[in-house]
Amino acid sequence: MANKSNNSNQTITLPQGGGALHGIGETFAPDLHTGTGNFTVPIALPPGRNGFQPKLSLVYSTGNGNSPFGLGWGLSIPGVSRKTRRRAS
Prior knowledge:
Layout: E1 27-31, E2 36-43, E3 56-61, E4 73-75
Antiparallel strand pairs: 1-2, 2-3, 3-4
């Protein structure tokens, strides 16, 4: 069939790669008792003292109200604090 639009026919090919793209570990789970949807996005944190590494996630629920993180968003823990005082040797 002749091309009447004077545009060249182009074939787009997908790039070949070794799977460099991957998910961030997010999960979605419906709550069948309340009818809400819950979406969790883990936040990667570096290890702290003595190898302690807390697990922190940003959590969205269709049933949550407004928060400092936006409508429906919250943290997986009640709060975050930091101690800067050093222990005496």
